[in-house]
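Appendix B. Extra example for self-study. Work through it before the problem class; the solution is given directly after the inputs so you can check yourself.
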Amino acid sequence: EAQVTQNPRYLITVTGKKLTVTCSQNMNHEYMSWYRQDPGLGLRQIYYSMNVEVTDKGDVPEGYKVSRKEKRNFPLILESPSPNQTSLYFCASSRGGTGGLNEQFFGPGTRLTVL
Amino acid sequence: GENVEQHPSTLSVQEGDSAVIKCTYSDSASNYFPWYKQELGKGPQLIIDIRSNVGEKKDQRIAVTLNKTAKHFSLHITETQPEDSAVYFCAARSNTGKLIFGQGTTLQVKP
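Solution. Structure tokens for the complete assembly:
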């Protein structure tokens, strides 16, 4: 089954404790992206990757890191989480390098709470 | 900067009625406008999209219209059913290639 998977689905952590949210897709998509969803703000892009070893900042990259060492994986790293990073996070992938013109397939989401 | 405004934020209709969600965008170079549906506990899923060279597109009970001059586009759902209840997001592809999402509309269809 073609899908995007994220782990963990739920996470409660404390300020400053490094964490990683994994994302994996099995559709051989070039483009991958991370979004955060907050009430009243919609989906805001954190980072995106057009292909292996190619990553770039989205609209809200502060406090986040990503890497794209393999085509299928795109982990999101919070080196020192803060309470304002409490949010619902989505990973997405699409074919092609730009990501803007093709359907994006979203993972099920990761609800993160930083105390 | 690039921006997409979506209205209303919440919409409640009776089953069988129509629902309309409207979006405006700021970047006149935007050329692709998808709509995503997000059911409770799931990620958004594409339901329909339209490109800038088309004014209207229909797929069964859903349709999207685009007015490039006014820079707005709308989602129309006819004969609504309870399973249409969800959060709907519009988006516009900016000239930088990014998808800019609207704030979302929570649609409730009452049986």
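Self-check: The first strand of chain A starts at residue 4 and ends at 7. If your reasoning did not lead you there, revisit section 3.
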